[in-house]
């Protein structure tokens, strides 16, 4: 996420956010300002739940960090700025990020989401999603003379570069991740025939390699940290010379959100995770919450999906959100819970995030000296010397 506090004043309210700790300075286009994101344009009716008595005081534990990460923010702003600069329609391959609310909002503005590049009219603007694409997809776009904007998260790009380098070195790459996920497909494309996908720890016990002394592992960036390390340990028990990647592939935001929900879950009767079903990191948060002590945990897209029965006998509700989720959706959940008597909200902060990525180079080039802060929008109040934000 980028989590923080709601700022009100002249104009629309916005969330003042602070993202991560850790050395990411080697990544291209990384800066570290504060980011201000406005509340989304599309709102749903307020939710009213029933306030039933429980044995003890009701309260909410709100995990921090949560919600938007730097890569998601960059990708969403990229589509937003592309629409402003080039006009609608702007095409996007796959969902720009895995959140139905964000996708619907961008569709309302004129973005068209497609599965493959052959659905895009020749010469059109096409944005690659935050999850990244394979070289074959880029080649297909070039053949159609598409004007591409690469919104791949820089942390995913790092994994792509590692896959390319290890493949050229002739190493077999064990890619820990979920087959069929867009990010895994993109990384596998960069590694070519040197890549073998390992979906889970059990597959680590059966995967076959050509040379046990020439194997390296990489991973999808949005996995459970604990499950990934279990997979690595089981691989290493079979292949003692298994090489590690130069740095951890699990995204900082994924790790931070999992650490926060572990602490929250240990004290919660119920955990609610805001995020879409195709969001890998959101689904993992539910699993982590259950593993670390929550008596029950559910994933929802919107506050109106809260089931009244979930609250029966519940004193403490933990709340968090995946890395593709706007903060306003979390606040809708908090507002709904308040109608059920959960009015005391304590934020449990385990890390402070202050990372931001500059916009894709194609957009920076075309925007030039234009105001890249938009209509008082997502980057209002940001100063980014590389991208001109501010």
TrEMBL record:
<dbReference type="GO" id="GO:0050992">
    <property type="term" value="P:dimethylallyl diphosphate biosynthetic process"/>
</dbReference>
<feature type="binding site">
    <location>
        <position position="279"/>
    </location>
    <ligand>
        <name>dimethylallyl diphosphate</name>
    </ligand>
</feature>
<feature type="binding site">
    <location>
        <position position="153"/>
    </location>
    <ligand>
        <name>[4Fe-4S] cluster</name>
    </ligand>
</feature>
<feature type="binding site">
    <location>
        <position position="251"/>
    </location>
    <ligand>
        <name>[4Fe-4S] cluster</name>
    </ligand>
</feature>
<comment type="function">
    <text>Catalyzes the conversion of 1-hydroxy-2-methyl-2-(E)-butenyl 4-diphosphate (HMBPP) into a mixture of isopentenyl diphosphate (IPP) and dimethylallyl diphosphate (DMAPP). Acts in the terminal step of the DOXP/MEP pathway for isoprenoid precursor biosynthesis.</text>
</comment>
<dbReference type="GO" id="GO:0016114">
    <property type="term" value="P:terpenoid biosynthetic process"/>
</dbReference>
<dbReference type="GO" id="GO:0051539">
    <property type="term" value="F:4 iron, 4 sulfur cluster binding"/>
</dbReference>
<feature type="region of interest" description="Disordered">
    <location>
        <begin position="368"/>
        <end position="390"/>
    </location>
</feature>
<dbReference type="Pfam" id="PF02401">
    <property type="entry name" value="LYTB"/>
</dbReference>
<feature type="binding site">
    <location>
        <position position="181"/>
    </location>
    <ligand>
        <name>(2E)-4-hydroxy-3-methylbut-2-enyl diphosphate</name>
    </ligand>
</feature>
<comment type="similarity">
    <text>Belongs to the IspH family.</text>
</comment>
<dbReference type="InterPro" id="IPR003451">
    <property type="entry name" value="LytB/IspH"/>
</dbReference>
<feature type="binding site">
    <location>
        <position position="324"/>
    </location>
    <ligand>
        <name>isopentenyl diphosphate</name>
    </ligand>
</feature>
<dbReference type="GO" id="GO:0019288">
    <property type="term" value="P:isopentenyl diphosphate biosynthetic process, methylerythritol 4-phosphate pathway"/>
</dbReference>
<feature type="binding site">
    <location>
        <position position="131"/>
    </location>
    <ligand>
        <name>dimethylallyl diphosphate</name>
    </ligand>
</feature>
<feature type="binding site">
    <location>
        <position position="324"/>
    </location>
    <ligand>
        <name>(2E)-4-hydroxy-3-methylbut-2-enyl diphosphate</name>
    </ligand>
</feature>
<comment type="pathway">
    <text>Isoprenoid biosynthesis; dimethylallyl diphosphate biosynthesis; dimethylallyl diphosphate from (2E)-4-hydroxy-3-methylbutenyl diphosphate: step 1/1.</text>
</comment>
<feature type="binding site">
    <location>
        <position position="69"/>
    </location>
    <ligand>
        <name>[4Fe-4S] cluster</name>
    </ligand>
</feature>
<feature type="binding site">
    <location>
        <position position="98"/>
    </location>
    <ligand>
        <name>dimethylallyl diphosphate</name>
    </ligand>
</feature>
<keyword id="KW-0414">Isoprene biosynthesis</keyword>
<feature type="binding site">
    <location>
        <position position="181"/>
    </location>
    <ligand>
        <name>dimethylallyl diphosphate</name>
    </ligand>
</feature>
<keyword id="KW-0560">Oxidoreductase</keyword>
<feature type="binding site">
    <location>
        <position position="131"/>
    </location>
    <ligand>
        <name>(2E)-4-hydroxy-3-methylbut-2-enyl diphosphate</name>
    </ligand>
</feature>
<feature type="binding site">
    <location>
        <position position="98"/>
    </location>
    <ligand>
        <name>isopentenyl diphosphate</name>
    </ligand>
</feature>
<dbReference type="GO" id="GO:0051745">
    <property type="term" value="F:4-hydroxy-3-methylbut-2-enyl diphosphate reductase activity"/>
</dbReference>
<feature type="binding site">
    <location>
        <position position="279"/>
    </location>
    <ligand>
        <name>(2E)-4-hydroxy-3-methylbut-2-enyl diphosphate</name>
    </ligand>
</feature>
<feature type="active site" description="Proton donor">
    <location>
        <position position="183"/>
    </location>
</feature>
<feature type="binding site">
    <location>
        <position position="98"/>
    </location>
    <ligand>
        <name>(2E)-4-hydroxy-3-methylbut-2-enyl diphosphate</name>
    </ligand>
</feature>
<feature type="binding site">
    <location>
        <position position="279"/>
    </location>
    <ligand>
        <name>isopentenyl diphosphate</name>
    </ligand>
</feature>
<keyword id="KW-0408">Iron</keyword>
<feature type="binding site">
    <location>
        <position position="131"/>
    </location>
    <ligand>
        <name>isopentenyl diphosphate</name>
    </ligand>
</feature>
<feature type="compositionally biased region" description="Gly residues">
    <location>
        <begin position="371"/>
        <end position="380"/>
    </location>
</feature>
<feature type="binding site">
    <location>
        <position position="280"/>
    </location>
    <ligand>
        <name>dimethylallyl diphosphate</name>
    </ligand>
</feature>
<keyword id="KW-0411">Iron-sulfur</keyword>
<feature type="binding site">
    <location>
        <position position="221"/>
    </location>
    <ligand>
        <name>(2E)-4-hydroxy-3-methylbut-2-enyl diphosphate</name>
    </ligand>
</feature>
<feature type="binding site">
    <location>
        <position position="181"/>
    </location>
    <ligand>
        <name>isopentenyl diphosphate</name>
    </ligand>
</feature>
<protein>
    <recommendedName>
        <fullName>4-hydroxy-3-methylbut-2-enyl diphosphate reductase</fullName>
        <ecNumber>1.17.7.4</ecNumber>
    </recommendedName>
</protein>
<feature type="binding site">
    <location>
        <position position="280"/>
    </location>
    <ligand>
        <name>isopentenyl diphosphate</name>
    </ligand>
</feature>
<comment type="pathway">
    <text>Isoprenoid biosynthesis; isopentenyl diphosphate biosynthesis via DXP pathway; isopentenyl diphosphate from 1-deoxy-D-xylulose 5-phosphate: step 6/6.</text>
</comment>
<feature type="binding site">
    <location>
        <position position="280"/>
    </location>
    <ligand>
        <name>(2E)-4-hydroxy-3-methylbut-2-enyl diphosphate</name>
    </ligand>
</feature>
<keyword id="KW-0479">Metal-binding</keyword>
<feature type="binding site">
    <location>
        <position position="281"/>
    </location>
    <ligand>
        <name>(2E)-4-hydroxy-3-methylbut-2-enyl diphosphate</name>
    </ligand>
</feature>
């Amino acid at each position: 996420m980028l989590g923080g506090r709601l700022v009100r004043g002249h104009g629309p309210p916005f969330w003042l956010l602070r993202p991560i700790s850790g050395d990411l300075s080697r990544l291209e286009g990384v800066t570290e300002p504060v980011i201000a994101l406005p509340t989304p344009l599309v709102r749903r009716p307020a939710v009213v739940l029933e306030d039933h008595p429980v044995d003890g005081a009701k309260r909410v534990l709100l995990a921090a960090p949560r919600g938007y990460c730097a890569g998601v923010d960059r990708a969403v702003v990229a589509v937003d700025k592309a629409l402003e600069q080039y006009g609608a329609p702007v095409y996007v391959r796959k969902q720009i990020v895995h959140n139905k609310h964000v996708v619907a909002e961008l569709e309302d503005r004129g973005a068209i989401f497609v599965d493959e590049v052959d659905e895009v009219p020749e010469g059109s603007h096409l944005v690659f999603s935050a999850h990244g694409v394979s070289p074959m997809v880029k080649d297909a776009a070039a053949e159609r003379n598409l004007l591409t904007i690469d919104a791949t998260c820089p942390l995913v790009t790092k994994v792509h570069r590692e896959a390319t380098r290890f493949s050229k070195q002739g190493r077999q790459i064990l890619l820990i991740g979920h087959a069929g996920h867009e990010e895994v497909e993109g990384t596998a494309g960069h590694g070519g025939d040197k890549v073998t996908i390992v979906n889970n720890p059990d597959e680590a016990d059966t995967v076959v390699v050509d040379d046990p002394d020439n194997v390296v592992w990489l991973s999808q960036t949005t996995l459970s940290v604990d499950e990934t390390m279990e997979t690595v340990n089981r691989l290493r028990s079979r292949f003692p010379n298994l090489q590690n990647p130069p740095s951890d592939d699990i995204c900082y935001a994924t790790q931070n959100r999992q650490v926060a929900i572990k602490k929250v879950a240990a004290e919660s009767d119920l955990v609610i995770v805001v995020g879409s079903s195709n969001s890998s990191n959101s689904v993992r948060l539910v699993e982590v919450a259950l593993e670390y002590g929550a008596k029950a945990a559910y994933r929802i897209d919107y506050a109106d999906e809260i089931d009244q029965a979930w609250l029966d006998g519940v004193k403490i509700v933990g709340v968090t959100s995946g890395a593709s989720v706007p903060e306003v959706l979390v606040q809708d959940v908090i507002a709904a819970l308040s109608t059920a008597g959960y009015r005391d909200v304590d934020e449990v902060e385990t890390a402070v995030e202050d990372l931001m990525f500059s916009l894709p180079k194609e957009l920076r080039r075309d925007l030039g000296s234009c105001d890249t802060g938009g209509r008082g929008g997502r980057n209002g109040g940001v100063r980014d010397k590389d991208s001109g934000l501010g």
